[in-house]
Amino acid sequence: MFNIQIKAISYGFEGQPESIFENVSFEVSGREKVGLIGPNGSGKTTLLRIVYGEVLPLKGQIIRPREGTSLGFLRQNPIQSSPLTLLDEVKGAFPRLLFLKKEMEALEGSARTSSSALRRYGQLQEEFEALDGYLLENRVQTILYGLGFEAVDLNTPYNLLSSGQKSKAQLAKLLLKEPELLLLDEPTNHLDIKALEWLEEGLSSYKKAVLVVSHDRFFLDRVVDKILELKRRSLKIYSGNYSFYQREKEIEEKRAWEEYEQQRRKVKKMRREALQRKVWAKRREKDRIGGGGAKGYITHRAAKMAKRAKAVEKRMEHILRKEKVEKPWMEKRIKIDFDLPQPSGDLICEVEDLTKSYGDKRLFSGLNFSLQKGENLAIIGPNGSGKTTLFKLILGIEVADKGKIKLGNRVRIGYYPQEREILHPENTVLQEVLRDGVDETFARTVLGCLKFRKNRVYERVGELSLGEMGKVIIARLLLSRCNLLILDEPTNHLDIEARIAVEEALLQFPGTILFTSHDRYFLRKLSQRIIEIAGGIIHYYEGGWDYYWEKRRATQGSKIPQ
């Protein structure tokens, strides 16, 4: 049975005073599906590289399985160049089959006239059949279609694919190879909801082990049976999916606070007792000096009380030194007191009979909806279905083929694009958000809610990660006094803590939100209504994510995962 053990490993970079993580221990065995979570920069990718054998730890031991056991590693940054088409690049998962096929094709002509060539062809064909070579094309296409590619993509040169498409192509190759341990570094990036569901089903039924880094909480709920949390340089293990981990964290935090408060009460009581005994001792000593009978007895009592006071103080010092319960770390919840410049009318936006095509590809036709003040409306659908185009039509960036869009009275729009070009890399975080007379105290409150605390507001934007840049854009929107936010994939590149922070900030926003996302936890938290656009077909759901999910299951039955 497959088993890899990581024992008390530590890792850090040369010249840095602190290691990234210390004394990390865990194991992956059999068919376990393990999720690795933690904030950006906590060392998750480094830990995957150590498991893969690409990086050596500074300390600790790795007990690997037998020689020849296969490990597959999907990186965040895929192979960028290949002279092949998408289909042929993914077929590269089976080099032996490709070799056999090439040899067979070379012998096809001579096999008709040469007995030795015929025998060799027969041997090659027998091995080709044994390896299911005739099913190769079908297997490759099934995985590519599951990950969201279409037939027209198969013969596209690999070098012309987007970075997201290349990442999906490399994921397809790994799934076809079926290694004993799949190491996946954020495989859900670039996947729409349909592809996510397909991948979840595939990994859940995968007959070998998986260690996956992901910030997709829904994905972690449906795939993994163990969570490794890498945070503040240490690792903790939870035997369950993400929801189990959440519940356990809440219990741990509650227990930690109870233990801390219990010790505080105990120490406080001991301090009071020691002080009281000292006061009594001084009072008895004063009585002796002042005269009166039984001086020897009073002196003895005073000394005894002083001794007991010292004993209590020593016991208290021992508790504080040896048994001290540290104050639990707790994320501070920040409430934002929004001040919109002027309320909009009740009608925010009305879309009538909207149609949009690019060449022969029709994105949608006859799209109708209205958006009311205070609503959160989600637009969902596969990549390329027209969600971003719809937003650009509402913003006036693009023109519809047919139909009209009417904005309500006093509507002021703030737009979050998928691209980050709207930020100035030389500005600090604080400079980026202090625009249009924004109050600095209010700006710091919003940034604090999004986890930019204290000196972090003075970091240059150009030095931030993509996820942190996204949070700066959201902060600017929340400070812009806009009453309609249009958000295009606002949780892309965010770790779980950052996603939760964005959710909490947006839930406090008193205006209207129109958004798209593939993050189903985010959709569940934010959406009140959903419109789905897929293959030019439009479905309207007068409820949030759970309502949408139940309706889909009712109409599509067993095709929808539980």
What is the percentage of strand-forming residues? Answer: 15-25%
Spatial gap, N to C terminus: 29 Å
User: What shape does the CA trace take?
Assistant: flat
**What number is the mean pLDDT?**
86
Number of DSSP helical runs = 17
Sheet with the most strands, sense and barrel status = 6 strands, mixed
Number of strands: 18
Spatial arrangement of strands, main beta sheet: 5-6-7-3-8-9
Radius of gyration: 32 Å
Q: Give the fraction of residues assigned to helices.
A: 40-55%
Low-confidence stretches: none
Structural class label: alpha/beta
Question: Describe it for me?
Answer:
The chain is of the alpha/beta class. It is flat, with a radius of gyration of 32 Å. Helices cover about 40% and strands about 20% of the residues. Helix 9 packs antiparallel against helix 10 and helix 14 runs parallel beside helix 15 (about 495-505). It has 17 helices and 18 strands. The mean pLDDT is about 85. It starts with a strand and ends in a 6-residue tail after the last helix.
SSE order and pairing:
Elements: E1 3-11, E2 21-29, E3 33-37, H1 44-52, E4 59-63, E5 71-74, H2 86-91, H3 95-107, H4 115-130, H5 136-146, H6 163-177, E6 181-185, H7 193-204, E7 209-213, H8 217-223, E8 226-231, E9 234-238, H9 242-289, H10 295-322, E10 347-358, E11 361-372, E12 376-380, H11 387-395, E13 402-407, E14 413-416, H12 429-433, H13 440-449, H14 466-479, E15 484-488, H15 496-507, E16 512-516, H16 520-526, E17 529-534, E18 537-541, H17 545-556
Parallel strand pairs: 3-7, 3-8, 5-6, 6-7, 12-16, 12-17, 14-15, 15-16
Antiparallel strand pairs: 1-2, 1-4, 8-9, 10-11, 10-13, 17-18
